[in-house]
Specification:
This protein is mostly helical. Helix content is 71%, strand content 2%. The protein has one domain (8-331).
Length: 352
């Protein structure tokens, strides 16, 4: 039997996490700048250590199962958030957001993501509480999403305008130039929207799609709304700094998305197995739940998530190294050929 987390711990945790989000938002607005690598690294490490400390507190306040669920959920959401970051890079590049104001754009995207995920957490928790068969829908949806992301067409996310964004372009009076991080600008006495509004709308609609993936995925690990919310907050905190730290590297991590695909498919299968265990099947097994379907535990999930992301990252880095080596060898061969051209041959003449 698992111990319940104290209510005061859950409430105080939500308050502290909310204050951290507000502080991060204030910093982004008050100090618009391009963070240096050291600053970004310190923030990313700080939030990662904070998540590990939080997992330890859950171990102390609850038990190992709670701590394991949080760690597995946090890593799942973090991997999906990094996948989200790929699309952020495409959107910000497509709208040519000035580097100085990219922090505000990213922070707006993260806040929108938190709000949308909070809504989906409430809806998902309500569905699970009243309709256990919803695990079938969650599982099938994650399998479908995983297959879609594995296809080449999955790389186009963020590169095309959504219907909502196309509608906004037609209906709103948008000027071509930015006005810092402001959403409007006055030109010749007339008020225009700036492209930053379109950036916020693009990030928001993208966040909506990713919320549809991430919430069913983490509910495959834990059904605790508190753990789901905490894992999402910790996954999104530091994402802005991670963008500036790895922005140039993200496009080169070619196999990272396949790690995300593996996680989505794994959790999709886990959800379907769980549904088979908990739901009566009228036409199968005499109307009883299917107990032969294996139950995948929290620590097994955590191990698979870690291995999937590690293998995907190492494979991407290995490909980068091989590609660079091939380019270097080709350049050396080209320079060697150029040096031999024009050298005198044995008869004293130059080769051509």
């Amino acid at each position: 039997m698992h111990l319940a987390l104290p209510l005061w711990f859950e409430i105080s945790s939500i308050v502290v996490l909310s204050l951290l989000i507000v502080a991060d938002l204030v910093i982004a607005v008050k100090r618009p700048h391009v963070p240096k690598p050291l600053e970004s690294t310190l923030f990313v490490v700080f939030y990662a250590v904070l998540a590990l400390v939080f997992a330890y507190l859950m171990l102390v306040m609850g038990d190992a199962e709670h701590a394991g669920q949080f760690l597995a959920g946090w890593l799942t959401e973090y991997s999906l958030s990094i996948d989200n970051l790929f699309v952020f890079v495409v959107i910000i590049a497509r709208f040519a957001v000035p580097p100085k104001y990219q922090q505000e754009a990213l922070m707006a995207g993260i806040v929108i993501a938190l709000v949308l995920r909070g809504i989906f957490i409430v809806i998902g928790a309500g569905l699970i509480e009243n309709f256990t068969w919803v695990f079938y829908l969650f599982g099938l949806f994650l399998l479908y999403t995983g297959v879609q992301q594995a296809l080449p067409s999955g790389d186009d996310e963020g590169s095309k305008d959504s219907f909502f964004l196309r509608f906004a372009r037609r209906r709103l009076n948008v000027h071509d130039e930015f006005n810092g991080a402001k959403l409007t600008v006055a030109i010749d006495g007339k008020r225009y929207f700036t492209p930053m509004l379109l950036v916020f709308l693009a990030l928001g609609t993208t966040d909506l799609l990713f919320a549809l993936d991430s919430i069913p995925a983490i509910f495959g690990i834990t059904t605790s709304p508190f753990i789901v919310f905490a894992a999402n907050v910790f996954a999104l905190m530091g994402l802005r700094q991670l963008y500036f730290l790895l922005g140039h590297l993200l496009k080169r991590l070619e196999y990272l998305k396949y790690g995300v695909v593996a996680i989505l498919v794994f959790i999709g299968v886990k959800l379907i197995f769980h549904a088979l265990h908990t739901n009566e099947l009228p036409f199968i097994n005499g109307g009883d739940p299917v107990h032969w379907a294996p139950e995948i535990g929290t620590w097994q999930s955590l191990g698979f998530i870690l291995v999937a992301m590690l293998v995907a990252t190492m494979a991407s880095l290995t490909k980068m190294w091989v590609d660079r080596r091939s380019v270097r060898n080709r350049d050396e061969q080209d320079s060697s050929k150029e040096s031999t051209v024009g050298e005198p041959d044995a008869g004293g003449e130059r080769s051509h």
